[in-house]
Write a structure and sequence with these properties.
The protein is an alpha/beta fold. 43% of the residues lie in helices and 14% in strands. It has a seven-stranded mixed sheet with strand order 2-8-7-6-5-3-4, sandwiched between helices. The protein has a three-stranded antiparallel sheet with strand order 9-12-11, with helices on one face. It has a two-stranded parallel ribbon with strand order 1-10. The longest helix has 18 residues. Belongs to the class-II pyridoxal-phosphate-dependent aminotransferase family. BioF subfamily.
Protein backbone atom coordinates (compact mmCIF):
# COMPACT_ATOMS: atom_id res chain seq x y z
CA UNK A 1 0.00 0.00 0.00
CA UNK A 2 2.79 2.42 0.88
CA UNK A 3 4.49 1.71 -2.46
CA UNK A 4 1.22 2.52 -4.27
CA UNK A 5 1.02 5.88 -2.52
CA UNK A 6 4.67 6.64 -3.26
CA UNK A 7 4.12 5.77 -6.92
CA UNK A 8 1.08 8.08 -7.07
CA UNK A 9 3.03 10.95 -5.53
CA UNK A 10 6.01 10.39 -7.81
CA UNK A 11 3.75 10.39 -10.86
CA UNK A 12 2.15 13.68 -9.82
CA UNK A 13 5.60 15.25 -9.43
CA UNK A 14 6.75 13.82 -12.77
CA UNK A 15 3.66 15.26 -14.47
CA UNK A 16 4.43 18.70 -13.11
CA UNK A 17 8.05 18.49 -14.17
CA UNK A 18 7.00 17.48 -17.68
CA UNK A 19 4.64 20.47 -17.82
CA UNK A 20 7.44 22.79 -16.67
CA UNK A 21 5.63 23.83 -13.48
CA UNK A 22 7.45 21.79 -10.82
CA UNK A 23 8.15 23.91 -7.74
CA UNK A 24 11.53 23.71 -5.99
CA UNK A 25 13.00 25.52 -3.02
CA UNK A 26 15.75 27.98 -3.90
CA UNK A 27 18.11 30.08 -1.85
CA UNK A 28 18.01 33.86 -2.12
CA UNK A 29 20.23 34.90 -4.98
CA UNK A 30 22.79 37.73 -4.99
CA UNK A 31 21.76 40.38 -7.47
CA UNK A 32 19.03 42.96 -8.01
CA UNK A 33 15.87 42.07 -6.06
CA UNK A 34 12.76 42.44 -8.20
CA UNK A 35 10.95 39.46 -6.68
CA UNK A 36 10.61 39.85 -2.90
CA UNK A 37 7.70 41.53 -1.06
CA UNK A 38 10.09 43.73 0.93
CA UNK A 39 8.75 46.81 -0.86
CA UNK A 40 10.16 49.41 1.55
CA UNK A 41 13.36 47.55 2.43
CA UNK A 42 12.50 47.29 6.14
CA UNK A 43 13.44 43.60 6.30
CA UNK A 44 17.10 44.50 5.81
CA UNK A 45 17.18 48.09 7.07
CA UNK A 46 20.06 48.41 9.56
CA UNK A 47 18.66 51.51 11.24
CA UNK A 48 15.33 49.75 11.78
CA UNK A 49 17.14 46.72 13.23
CA UNK A 50 19.27 48.87 15.53
CA UNK A 51 16.15 50.54 16.90
CA UNK A 52 14.68 47.11 17.68
CA UNK A 53 17.93 45.85 19.21
CA UNK A 54 18.04 48.82 21.56
CA UNK A 55 14.56 47.95 22.83
CA UNK A 56 15.47 44.27 23.06
CA UNK A 57 18.55 45.08 25.12
CA UNK A 58 16.28 46.64 27.74
CA UNK A 59 13.71 43.82 27.47
CA UNK A 60 15.51 40.49 27.08
CA UNK A 61 12.34 38.69 28.23
CA UNK A 62 10.96 39.30 24.73
CA UNK A 63 13.14 36.40 23.55
CA UNK A 64 10.84 33.98 25.34
CA UNK A 65 9.06 31.56 23.01
CA UNK A 66 5.31 31.50 22.44
CA UNK A 67 4.91 28.37 24.66
CA UNK A 68 1.30 27.63 23.68
CA UNK A 69 -2.05 28.85 22.44
CA UNK A 70 -2.92 32.34 23.61
CA UNK A 71 -5.85 30.83 25.49
CA UNK A 72 -3.44 28.65 27.48
CA UNK A 73 0.07 30.07 28.08
CA UNK A 74 0.85 32.03 24.91
CA UNK A 75 -0.65 35.39 25.80
CA UNK A 76 1.37 38.31 27.22
CA UNK A 77 1.01 41.91 28.29
CA UNK A 78 3.20 42.95 25.35
CA UNK A 79 1.00 41.18 22.80
CA UNK A 80 -2.11 42.83 24.24
CA UNK A 81 -0.45 46.25 24.23
CA UNK A 82 0.70 45.81 20.61
CA UNK A 83 -2.84 44.85 19.58
CA UNK A 84 -4.13 48.02 21.26
CA UNK A 85 -1.39 49.98 19.48
CA UNK A 86 -2.36 48.50 16.09
CA UNK A 87 -6.06 49.25 16.64
CA UNK A 88 -5.26 52.86 17.54
CA UNK A 89 -3.00 53.26 14.50
CA UNK A 90 -5.73 51.98 12.18
CA UNK A 91 -8.51 53.84 13.98
CA UNK A 92 -10.48 50.67 14.51
CA UNK A 93 -11.99 49.23 17.66
CA UNK A 94 -9.89 46.07 18.09
CA UNK A 95 -7.03 44.10 16.54
CA UNK A 96 -6.16 40.41 16.90
CA UNK A 97 -2.68 39.13 16.04
CA UNK A 98 -2.02 35.93 14.08
CA UNK A 99 1.20 34.15 13.08
CA UNK A 100 0.49 34.84 9.38
CA UNK A 101 -2.03 36.34 6.97
CA UNK A 102 -2.84 32.80 5.84
CA UNK A 103 -3.92 31.86 9.36
CA UNK A 104 -5.90 35.10 9.73
CA UNK A 105 -7.90 34.39 6.56
CA UNK A 106 -8.46 30.77 7.61
CA UNK A 107 -9.87 32.06 10.90
CA UNK A 108 -12.19 34.64 9.33
CA UNK A 109 -13.69 32.55 6.57
CA UNK A 110 -13.91 29.24 8.40
CA UNK A 111 -15.57 30.83 11.42
CA UNK A 112 -17.84 33.74 10.48
CA UNK A 113 -19.91 32.64 7.44
CA UNK A 114 -22.48 30.01 8.47
CA UNK A 115 -24.60 27.39 6.75
CA UNK A 116 -27.12 29.10 4.42
CA UNK A 117 -24.80 32.12 4.14
CA UNK A 118 -23.07 32.92 0.84
CA UNK A 119 -19.50 34.10 0.30
CA UNK A 120 -18.95 36.07 -2.92
CA UNK A 121 -15.28 35.85 -3.91
CA UNK A 122 -13.39 37.93 -6.41
CA UNK A 123 -12.07 35.30 -8.82
CA UNK A 124 -8.46 36.39 -8.15
CA UNK A 125 -8.66 36.55 -4.35
CA UNK A 126 -5.77 34.96 -2.45
CA UNK A 127 -5.53 31.20 -1.95
CA UNK A 128 -5.69 31.61 1.84
CA UNK A 129 -9.22 33.04 1.49
CA UNK A 130 -10.25 30.12 -0.71
CA UNK A 131 -8.86 27.63 1.81
CA UNK A 132 -10.72 29.37 4.63
CA UNK A 133 -13.93 29.13 2.61
CA UNK A 134 -13.40 25.39 2.12
CA UNK A 135 -13.60 25.02 5.91
CA UNK A 136 -16.95 26.84 6.02
CA UNK A 137 -20.43 25.38 5.45
CA UNK A 138 -21.45 28.56 3.61
CA UNK A 139 -22.03 28.60 -0.13
CA UNK A 140 -19.22 30.00 -2.29
CA UNK A 141 -19.71 31.90 -5.56
CA UNK A 142 -17.04 33.72 -7.54
CA UNK A 143 -17.54 36.97 -9.40
CA UNK A 144 -15.45 38.34 -12.25
CA UNK A 145 -12.38 40.23 -11.14
CA UNK A 146 -13.15 43.81 -10.07
CA UNK A 147 -16.45 43.64 -12.01
CA UNK A 148 -18.97 45.59 -9.95
CA UNK A 149 -21.82 44.81 -12.35
CA UNK A 150 -21.22 41.08 -12.10
CA UNK A 151 -20.92 41.30 -8.32
CA UNK A 152 -24.21 43.20 -8.09
CA UNK A 153 -25.96 40.58 -10.22
CA UNK A 154 -24.71 37.94 -7.76
CA UNK A 155 -25.83 40.01 -4.78
CA UNK A 156 -29.30 40.54 -6.25
CA UNK A 157 -29.81 36.77 -6.59
CA UNK A 158 -28.34 35.76 -3.25
CA UNK A 159 -30.61 34.92 -0.33
CA UNK A 160 -29.57 34.98 3.30
CA UNK A 161 -26.48 36.55 4.82
CA UNK A 162 -23.83 37.50 2.27
CA UNK A 163 -20.09 38.09 2.60
CA UNK A 164 -17.82 39.72 0.00
CA UNK A 165 -14.11 38.81 -0.09
CA UNK A 166 -11.54 40.93 -1.95
CA UNK A 167 -7.92 42.06 -1.82
CA UNK A 168 -7.23 45.79 -1.85
CA UNK A 169 -4.08 45.24 -3.97
CA UNK A 170 -4.01 41.94 -5.84
CA UNK A 171 -0.84 39.97 -5.37
CA UNK A 172 -0.52 38.44 -8.84
CA UNK A 173 -2.16 41.18 -10.94
CA UNK A 174 -0.88 44.26 -9.12
CA UNK A 175 -4.17 46.08 -9.62
CA UNK A 176 -6.48 47.68 -7.08
CA UNK A 177 -9.97 46.83 -5.88
CA UNK A 178 -12.56 49.65 -6.15
CA UNK A 179 -13.00 49.66 -2.38
CA UNK A 180 -15.34 52.65 -2.11
CA UNK A 181 -17.73 51.23 -4.73
CA UNK A 182 -17.53 47.80 -3.12
CA UNK A 183 -18.51 49.34 0.23
CA UNK A 184 -21.48 51.07 -1.43
CA UNK A 185 -22.65 47.77 -2.95
CA UNK A 186 -22.20 45.91 0.32
CA UNK A 187 -24.30 48.50 2.15
CA UNK A 188 -26.99 48.45 -0.54
CA UNK A 189 -27.47 44.71 -0.21
CA UNK A 190 -26.72 44.30 3.49
CA UNK A 191 -23.54 42.30 2.80
CA UNK A 192 -20.37 42.25 4.91
CA UNK A 193 -17.17 43.28 3.12
CA UNK A 194 -13.86 41.66 4.14
CA UNK A 195 -10.64 43.11 2.71
CA UNK A 196 -7.19 41.50 2.59
CA UNK A 197 -4.60 44.31 2.70
CA UNK A 198 -1.47 42.12 2.58
CA UNK A 199 0.25 43.96 -0.26
CA UNK A 200 -1.12 47.45 0.40
CA UNK A 201 -0.18 47.60 4.08
CA UNK A 202 2.82 49.89 4.56
CA UNK A 203 3.05 50.80 0.89
CA UNK A 204 -0.03 53.01 1.16
CA UNK A 205 0.09 54.24 4.74
CA UNK A 206 -1.76 51.78 6.95
CA UNK A 207 -3.48 50.26 3.92
CA UNK A 208 -6.14 51.42 1.49
CA UNK A 209 -9.06 50.83 3.87
CA UNK A 210 -7.51 53.21 6.38
CA UNK A 211 -6.26 55.55 3.65
CA UNK A 212 -9.81 55.77 2.26
CA UNK A 213 -11.41 56.21 5.72
CA UNK A 214 -13.48 53.06 5.16
CA UNK A 215 -12.93 51.43 8.54
CA UNK A 216 -16.59 51.70 9.57
CA UNK A 217 -17.81 50.44 6.18
CA UNK A 218 -15.58 47.34 6.03
CA UNK A 219 -16.61 44.47 8.30
CA UNK A 220 -13.08 43.15 8.80
CA UNK A 221 -9.64 43.91 7.41
CA UNK A 222 -6.55 41.69 7.35
CA UNK A 223 -3.19 43.46 7.48
CA UNK A 224 0.04 41.51 7.26
CA UNK A 225 3.53 42.35 8.44
CA UNK A 226 5.79 40.06 6.39
CA UNK A 227 5.78 42.24 3.27
CA UNK A 228 6.26 46.03 3.23
CA UNK A 229 6.40 46.08 7.04
CA UNK A 230 9.50 43.88 7.07
CA UNK A 231 8.39 41.77 10.05
CA UNK A 232 6.15 38.70 10.43
CA UNK A 233 2.57 37.94 11.40
CA UNK A 234 -0.80 39.53 10.68
CA UNK A 235 -3.74 41.19 12.37
CA UNK A 236 -7.49 41.12 11.89
CA UNK A 237 -9.05 44.55 12.45
CA UNK A 238 -12.73 44.81 13.34
CA UNK A 239 -15.23 45.62 16.06
CA UNK A 240 -14.76 44.26 19.54
CA UNK A 241 -17.63 41.78 19.26
CA UNK A 242 -16.07 40.26 16.11
CA UNK A 243 -12.68 39.89 17.79
CA UNK A 244 -14.20 38.29 20.90
CA UNK A 245 -16.16 35.90 18.67
CA UNK A 246 -12.98 34.87 16.84
CA UNK A 247 -11.20 34.27 20.15
CA UNK A 248 -14.03 31.94 21.17
CA UNK A 249 -14.88 30.18 17.93
CA UNK A 250 -12.04 30.45 15.37
CA UNK A 251 -10.13 27.16 15.41
CA UNK A 252 -7.05 28.61 13.60
CA UNK A 253 -6.70 31.04 16.52
CA UNK A 254 -7.64 28.71 19.37
CA UNK A 255 -5.37 25.84 18.33
CA UNK A 256 -2.32 27.81 17.16
CA UNK A 257 0.68 28.78 19.29
CA UNK A 258 0.69 32.51 19.89
CA UNK A 259 3.29 34.80 18.37
CA UNK A 260 6.43 35.16 20.53
CA UNK A 261 6.85 38.59 22.09
CA UNK A 262 9.79 39.34 19.80
CA UNK A 263 7.48 39.22 16.79
CA UNK A 264 4.98 41.57 18.42
CA UNK A 265 7.78 43.94 19.44
CA UNK A 266 9.12 43.92 15.87
CA UNK A 267 5.71 44.82 14.47
CA UNK A 268 5.38 47.84 16.78
CA UNK A 269 8.99 48.85 16.16
CA UNK A 270 8.47 48.84 12.39
CA UNK A 271 5.29 50.93 12.57
CA UNK A 272 7.21 53.58 14.50
CA UNK A 273 10.26 53.40 12.25
CA UNK A 274 8.15 53.84 9.15
CA UNK A 275 6.33 56.80 10.68
CA UNK A 276 9.73 58.40 11.29
CA UNK A 277 10.94 57.63 7.76
CA UNK A 278 8.15 58.60 5.33
CA UNK A 279 10.74 59.07 2.59
CA UNK A 280 10.77 55.30 2.10
CA UNK A 281 7.26 55.40 0.63
CA UNK A 282 8.25 58.39 -1.50
CA UNK A 283 11.35 56.52 -2.72
CA UNK A 284 9.20 53.53 -3.67
CA UNK A 285 6.75 55.66 -5.66
CA UNK A 286 9.70 57.28 -7.42
CA UNK A 287 10.93 53.83 -8.51
CA UNK A 288 7.45 52.81 -9.64
CA UNK A 289 7.14 55.94 -11.81
CA UNK A 290 10.60 55.31 -13.27
CA UNK A 291 9.66 51.74 -14.18
CA UNK A 292 6.30 52.79 -15.64
CA UNK A 293 7.96 55.40 -17.88
CA UNK A 294 9.50 52.54 -19.87
CA UNK A 295 6.06 51.76 -21.27
CA UNK A 296 6.16 47.99 -20.91
CA UNK A 297 2.85 46.11 -21.17
CA UNK A 298 1.43 45.49 -17.72
CA UNK A 299 -1.70 44.15 -16.05
CA UNK A 300 -1.10 46.36 -13.03
CA UNK A 301 -2.41 49.64 -11.70
CA UNK A 302 -0.57 52.95 -11.64
CA UNK A 303 1.36 53.34 -8.41
CA UNK A 304 1.45 49.62 -7.68
CA UNK A 305 4.72 48.09 -6.47
CA UNK A 306 3.67 44.87 -8.23
CA UNK A 307 3.99 45.05 -12.00
CA UNK A 308 2.68 41.97 -13.79
CA UNK A 309 4.21 41.73 -17.27
CA UNK A 310 2.23 39.34 -19.52
CA UNK A 311 4.34 36.51 -20.91
CA UNK A 312 2.00 33.73 -22.11
CA UNK A 313 3.46 30.28 -22.48
CA UNK A 314 5.58 28.41 -19.96
CA UNK A 315 8.62 28.12 -22.26
CA UNK A 316 8.50 31.81 -23.18
CA UNK A 317 8.12 32.80 -19.54
CA UNK A 318 11.08 30.64 -18.52
CA UNK A 319 13.20 32.17 -21.30
CA UNK A 320 12.38 35.72 -20.15
CA UNK A 321 13.21 34.91 -16.55
CA UNK A 322 16.48 33.22 -17.51
CA UNK A 323 17.47 36.19 -19.70
CA UNK A 324 17.11 38.48 -16.70
CA UNK A 325 18.82 36.15 -14.24
CA UNK A 326 21.83 35.87 -16.51
CA UNK A 327 22.33 39.58 -15.80
CA UNK A 328 21.70 39.27 -12.06
CA UNK A 329 18.11 40.56 -12.19
CA UNK A 330 15.67 38.40 -10.22
CA UNK A 331 11.91 38.44 -10.91
CA UNK A 332 9.21 35.87 -10.19
CA UNK A 333 7.68 33.73 -12.93
CA UNK A 334 3.98 33.19 -12.25
CA UNK A 335 2.85 29.92 -13.79
CA UNK A 336 -0.11 27.54 -13.49
CA UNK A 337 -1.68 26.52 -11.20
CA UNK A 338 -1.20 29.93 -9.52
CA UNK A 339 -2.71 31.55 -12.65
CA UNK A 340 -4.67 30.05 -15.52
CA UNK A 341 -2.78 28.50 -18.43
CA UNK A 342 -2.23 31.18 -21.05
CA UNK A 343 -2.07 34.00 -18.49
CA UNK A 344 1.52 33.43 -17.37
CA UNK A 345 3.39 36.59 -16.41
CA UNK A 346 6.58 37.94 -14.93
CA UNK A 347 5.86 39.46 -11.55
CA UNK A 348 8.19 42.42 -11.05
CA UNK A 349 8.28 43.71 -7.48
CA UNK A 350 9.63 47.22 -7.11
CA UNK A 351 11.33 48.45 -3.96
CA UNK A 352 12.45 51.67 -2.37
CA UNK A 353 16.03 50.36 -2.57
CA UNK A 354 16.08 49.49 -6.29
CA UNK A 355 18.35 51.90 -8.15
CA UNK A 356 17.39 53.68 -11.34
CA UNK A 357 20.28 51.90 -13.05
CA UNK A 358 18.88 48.48 -12.04
CA UNK A 359 15.41 49.42 -13.24
CA UNK A 360 16.80 50.75 -16.52
CA UNK A 361 18.72 47.54 -17.11
CA UNK A 362 15.61 45.48 -16.32
CA UNK A 363 13.31 47.40 -18.65
CA UNK A 364 15.88 47.52 -21.46
CA UNK A 365 16.30 43.73 -21.35
CA UNK A 366 12.55 43.17 -21.27
CA UNK A 367 12.08 45.45 -24.27
CA UNK A 368 14.78 43.54 -26.15
CA UNK A 369 13.09 40.26 -25.27
CA UNK A 370 9.70 41.46 -26.51
CA UNK A 371 11.20 42.98 -29.68
CA UNK A 372 12.93 39.68 -30.47
CA UNK A 373 9.65 37.74 -30.37
Amino acid sequence: MRDDVQAHLSQALSDREEQGILRKLRMRQPGADFYSNDYLGLASNNACHEMLLASLHDNPQWLRGGTGSRLVSGNSALTLSVEDFIAAEHQTERALLFPSGYMANLALFSCLPKRNDTILLDEFVHRSVLDGCRLSFAGKIRFQHNDLGHLESRLAKTKGKCWIAVESLYSMEGDFAPLHDLAVLAERYGASLIVDEAHAMGVFGHGLVCDGHLQERVFATVVTYGKAMGAHGAAILSHGTVIDYLINFAAPFIYTTGLPDLFAATIRNNYIFLQNNPHLREDLQNRIRYFSAAGLPTLSGAGSPIQAIPCPGIARLAAAKETLEAQGLYTFAVRPPTVKSGSERLRVSLHAFNTHAEIQQLTDLLKEFYDAE
